[in-house]
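Progress narrative, work stream C.
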Amino acid sequence: MKKNLNSGFTLIELVIIMVILGVLAAVAVPRLGNTIDSSELSAEEAVIGNLRSALEVYAMDKVVENSRKSFPYNPFDALDNKSRNDLNNKGWEFDGYEINHYRNDGNRVVWGYDRNNGQINYEYNDYYNDNDSSDYYYNDSSGGQF
């Protein structure tokens, strides 16, 4: 009895499989990019929301201490040390005027901080990779432009 050593896939079958995988990849990759962008956006909204809450708690603590509502010079000072260090290690910084977040794709999102009233407002988004100065806006859940 002779064994058939020619069993296996033909070249045409392999080419068809490669075409099918290429089509699937062409559909999946753009969706993955949108998912990453929307997850970064959601994470930024969560961080800014937590920062706003921490600033209010800080201000209320100052009312209890000296009967005067005040906010810190650096909004990250309203956070505990662990949260502050985590954010600083993940691309968040305060430059004295603005809160900056450097995204994984190299873009920078900027929020203005007013230490007189503790307000944080979205300002703009820099596109460092594209050398494009256009901005885009979206609304956050607190009603401000984000």
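Work stream C, second folded protein:
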Amino acid sequence: MTDPTRRLDAPGLACIDLTPLIASTMREMEPDDILEVHTDDPAARVGVPAWCRLTRNPLVYSDELVSPSPNHTVFLIAKKNPDKKENQQ
């Protein structure tokens, strides 16, 4: 697994509030940095990957865990690099 540059713990935060928080955190990061996001909102399992596709920030990894809470999900998101060809269309 890729080592994250930053970590965002967001237990209890609904996906509708989580994705803007991810966006604001990513603005402070450098291209290709990795953000590790921890959430317990089941909707994030759909919402965060969708946000990654829409913003073209690559979803590097995701996993649903049973600890520390039953709905715990971890995401690793790379900040897009505008100089890389796969980010362009």
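The beta strands are 6-10, 34-39, 59-64, 73-78. No further action is required on this item.
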